[in-house]
């Protein structure tokens, strides 16, 4: 203990006896006498008047003890605060969050976390997933929600959800000509080849976004060359703009939750195989997680896996929207 000598002197002053203080402190009387003498020698003053019994503090000793008690109180308060931080009762948590985390998940995660850890303050920083690695490694944020196609070797990941990437095609697209879309749904998607998607308009996330990077790599791998790309800020915007006829997009099944009546796209899958969106929480590989960080990750896993907006529309719900869409009815008559 840094201030152990102060504690010893306080005990002697309160009991007014070195022998009694030594007994309560579980040290020998000669050892305690040497400690007091060493402090007096260091300060150049006498703390106790040894010419009278019981012992009495000198004026200098009274002033010393007054300040020593204040220091001991501060030391005790600091130790208590550090203990609370160690036990995750107090502290700060900085979270990097992409659009999906901010819009869908955090409103369900943070209220529960706050009830369990009311003494921990929280900061949220939003940007695209690839930019979080630098912030994590610098220590500017503690945890980050990411959507990565190529995990970093410097980070550890706790995966939260995985979803198939589907192709969503405007129902007015010429590549649907001659296709039977009467039973189109998540359970009955069309199959399209990369060649059919060549030289079409697309609505996509920017490659600087985590999922956008995955989609960009998918286009490159399948040699799909868009005629024009409209970059949208998030996956919901991509889906709705595609449904409105602005171009083809890639999105996950849960995007169908954001379908508007009258703007229902056609669901398809690539003939060349499946690609998945991987959502995870990342942190530096050498980081020792605190109890509160571990709990935040566990809550995230629970909430994301059961979040209703991460569950796609049922076939019945999809059919209901399709039946309310005049665009699809017109197209089916046209084809």
TrEMBL record:
Domain HTH lysR-type: start-end pairs: 1-58
Top-level lineage group: Bacteria
Cell inner membrane in keyword set: no
Entries under SUPFAM superfamilies matching the protein: Periplasmic binding protein-like II (SSF53850), Winged helix' DNA-binding domain (SSF46785)
Alphabetized UniProt keyword annotations: DNA-binding, Transcription, Transcription regulation
InterPro entries membership: HTH-type_LysR_regulators, LysR_HTH_N, LysR_subst-bd, WH-like_DNA-bd_sf, WH_DNA-bd_sf
Molecular-function GO term, any one: DNA binding
One Pfam family cited in the UniProt record for this chain: HTH_1
GO CC annotation: cytosol
Similarity field: Belongs to the LysR transcriptional regulatory family.
Keyword Transcription regulation carried by entry: yes
Protein name: LysR family transcriptional regulator
